Amino acid sequence: MELKAAISIVNELMDKFDLNKSGWQFKLNRNKRQIGLTRWKKTPSGVEKSISLSVYFIEHNEEWVIRDVILHEIAHALCGLEAGHSKVWKDKCIEIGARPNPSIDYAVMPSSHISVCKKCNKIVDTHFKAPKTKRGCFNCKSQANTKKVNGVFNVGDEYNE
Questions:
Q1: Mean of the pLDDT values across residues 25-42?
Q2: DSSP of the chain, one letter per residue?
Q3: Distances in Å between the alpha carbon of 47 and those of 53, 76, 158?
Q4: What is the CA radius of gyration of the chain?
Q5: Among 57, 148, 149, 157, which one has the highest count of C-beta atoms within 10 angstroms of its own C-beta?
Q6: pLDDT averaged over the chain?
Q7: Nearest C-alpha neighbor of 121 from the set 139, 103, 94, 102
Q8: Per-residue b/e over 24-41, b at no fewer than 16 CB within 10 Å?
Q9: pLDDT digits (tens, 9 = 90+) for 35-58
Q10: pLDDT score of 149 more than 80
């Protein structure tokens, strides 16, 4: 999705839930491990409240996924810092139209390393740097090798060099 279109959706949703009026800001970041973040940061002048999304996440995902993650982060903002991924937060997600899923496993992010099963050739895991431990395959329980790559890969897909 284009960044401009994603920013438009963010602004629309932050307005809908009155976050812009209550001092919340939106930021883009270049995180490769975190797709979205809701933050309360203490500053000398008070608390800076922000929701941020990774540009890598935006560039590699469809609108419905981005909208869901924005709503996920908005639910955090509406529930407060202490709520985390609690029942209160999950109920708020349902109320505002987000999936109440603390891990967004349907989002796609680029990877620099993948673990590929030696036996069945399935992608077992994706990484942003080489993992320190070997991974095992979920399907056939064999050990996986790590390969240096560049691109977007989905766990469970067959790997073709």
A1: 92
A2: --HHHHHHHHHHHHHHTTTTTTTEEEEEE--SS-SEEEEEEEETTEEEEEEEEEHHHHHTS-HHHHHHHHHHHHHHHHH-GGGTTSHHHHHHHHHHT----SS-TT---EEEEEEEETTT-BEEEEESS--SS--B-TTT--BEEEEEEEEE--TTSBP--
A3: 19, 16, 47
A4: 18
A5: 57
A6: 88
A7: 139
A8: bebeebebbeebbebbee
A9: 999 999 999 988 999 999 999 899
A10: no
Phi, psi of 107 (to 5 degrees): -85, 150
* Angle of CA points 106, 112, 118, to nearest 5°: 85
Cβ-proximal residues to 79 (8 Å cutoff; 6+ apart), any chain: 86, 88, 89, 92
Tokens of 138: 């979920």
What pTM value is reported for the model? Answer: 0.76
d(CA 76, CA 71): 9
Two tokens, residue 72: 């996920």
